[in-house]
Amino acid sequence: MSSSLRTSTIIAASIGTIFTGFVAYAIYFDHKRRTDPEFRKALKRESRREARVAKEQAEAQGAQQKEAINTAVAQAKEEGFPTDVEDKEAYFMTEVARGETLCQDGSDSVEAALCFYKALKVYPQPRDLMSIYDKTVPKPVLDILADMIASDPSIQVGSRQGSESGSHGIDD
């Protein structure tokens, strides 16, 4: 029984020593952070560097997404759109269904927005369809769709300012 007591005492002392060391390091770090001007400057520099890197990555991603949007719109225009009324109706239904499926999957927002864009191109009253999109399409996809519409002057949904502010007014 005395050996088990010695083992538990050794384990307790070891855990206590480790915990005390951790607390001492935390106190030391906090003291150094508060009093050492060079250490504070180094922490601020590191924080600014990380913020700058994050900002650059966000800008690069935004530029990449804008390029993907422009490419997708150009490709859709190149493929062309149906001109017959029955073909337009079938095309519209197909593209809206694809867009809704992609929105539910959450896999590719640009592809989902492209489907809604193609449906908008063949719809006779784009303004009415945009008001429906405002209520049903998720905001990230709607924002991409707004960028697609902005890059295509042939779609008349009223003033561009109004359509974008309408899409932002729903979730704000």
Architecture overview:
By secondary structure, the chain is an all-alpha fold. Helix content is 85%, strand content 0%. It has 7 helices and no strands. The chain starts with a helix and ends with a helix. The model is unreliable at 160-172 (pLDDT under 50).
User: Total strand count, please?
Assistant: 0
Overall pLDDT metric: 84
Q: Any idea what the radius of gyration is?
A: 29 Å
Return residue spans where pLDDT drops below 50 for at least 5 consecutive residues.
Answer: 160-172
Portion in beta strands: under 5%
Report the total helices: 7
What is the N-to-C order of secondary-structure elements (H for helix, E for strand)?
HHHHHHH
Which class best fits the helix and strand makeup?
A: mainly alpha
Largest sheet: none
Specify the overall morphology. elongated
